[in-house]
Amino acid sequence: MTKESTEQLNSVSFACDVLNALDNLGGAGVTELAKKLDCSKSTAHRQLTTLYNKEYLVKDGDQYRIGFKCLDMAAHVRDQIDNYDVIREEIDNLAVETGETAQFATEEHGRVVYLYKARGENGVQTSSNVGTREFFHCTSLGKVMMANMSEDQIDEIIERHGLPAKTVNTVTDRESLREAFEQIRERGYAIDDEENVQGLRCVAAPVFQGKDILGAVSVSGPSRRMEGERFDEEIPKNVTRSANVIELNSKFA
């Protein structure tokens, strides 16, 4: 472990836990938050009051929720992505072309992080939103990025986050994953066959920046529509073409 990973301020760590809990709960009062974090009401109240006074939270009656200050910070993070406009335009086009839900994601702290999402005419609402973090091994976005990483990077991700089962189809052992990675590299895309959410299939292609993996593009849809030739050929062509467009346009953006 690095020095940075072992040294932390407990007060700051707990403040982050409060923000994460409020995000997951969609807002909460003192009692609900204390129960969620397994702490005393007085501790929860002090943290909520501090974050409220610093304007990271807003209060409606006795309910606290995350405020727009966090949105402002997120906008600054987004603006650091040099080719964000290129990504947004191509993902919008992909959603229109397929009629499904299209997404772009990258890696941060060993997790898949969704940066942009667009829904086509028939696109279904998925659990992922901009900023959502997900495991690598159970998503097509994660697997296609992981397949193009070094063995050391792969081992570090697995050691840090494990290989938990999200559905009965989730691959949870390293050897099966490595076999899948060989196939992914050979065909140039990855699939999620109801491995993250039951009833949802997804296809993803990698986006490179030089020799480095920048992120990945995906299309998700209900398994009843994502099948046969459409799932095996049409959607893979769509996502690989979009990934290539982002790569090419990013060079000249």
TrEMBL record:
It comes from the Archaea. It holds the Pfam family IclR_C. The keyword Transcription regulation applies. Residues 69-252 form the IclR-ED domain. This is IclR family transcriptional regulator. Residues 9-68 form the HTH iclR-type domain. GO terms for molecular function: DNA binding; DNA-binding transcription factor activity. Gene3D superfamilies: 3.30.450.40, Winged helix-like DNA-binding domain superfamily/Winged helix DNA-binding domain. One of its GO terms (biological process) is negative regulation of DNA-templated transcription. InterPro entries: ArsR-like_HTH, GAF-like_dom_sf, HTH_MetabolicPath_Reg, Tscrpt_reg_IclR_C, Tscrpt_reg_IclR_N, WH-like_DNA-bd_sf, WH_DNA-bd_sf. Keywords: DNA-binding, Plasmid, Transcription, Transcription regulation. The keyword Cytoplasm does not apply.
